[in-house]
Amino acid sequence: MKSEKGQSLVEFALILPLLVLMLFGIIDFARIFHAYLTIDHAGREAARAASIGKDDTYIKQKAVDNGVSINLKDTNIAISPTGAKKSGDNVTITINYPINFLTPLISNIVGSITLNDTTVMRVE
Asked: What is the pLDDT of residues 77-91, one digit of tens each?
């Protein structure tokens, strides 16, 4: 019978890249999920500000303030219709947020993705 002293080391070396890839995948999923929840919350807060008749600058600032954990910028936010809003009209807040993967293999294949969130509320 032959010696099996290095067998566990070889098995560990074969499975380690898969474990690391899975760990980074879990981290990427958590980051993307957090970013989506944040832009969803920021969109709701901005739409709520728009529904009480605030101006576009205030609405964008409200979204940026609620998206500070992901460094949300006002260039990622679109308001429709712009300008003065009449009572009874619908206002739509759209947030587009690009995010990159941390996992090297996935980021080479996919690149970056853009998370989109649209919130519609009626102006009171």
From this structure: 999 998 887 888 899
61 Cβ contact partners less than 8 Å away, ≥ 6 residues apart? 74
User: Which residues, 6+ apart, have CB-to-CB distance to 48 below 8 Å?
Assistant: 121
Check if the beta carbon of residue 32 is closer than 8 Å to that of residue 99.
yes
Question: Over 90: is that where the pLDDT of 66 sits?
Answer: yes
Residue-level pLDDT at 83: 81
d(CA 66, CA 88): 26
The two three-digit tokens of residue 16, written as one number: 């380690």
Q: How far is CA 67 from CA 37, 75, 96, in A?
A: 10, 13, 12
CA angle 49, 54, 59 (to 5 degrees): 55
Q: Over the chain, what is the mean pLDDT?
A: 91
- Model pLDDT, residue 1: 57
**DSSP 8-state assignment for residue 4:** -
What is the distance between the alpha carbons of residues 122 and 124, in angstroms, rounded to a whole number?
A: 6
User: Where in the chain are the domains?
Assistant: 7-122
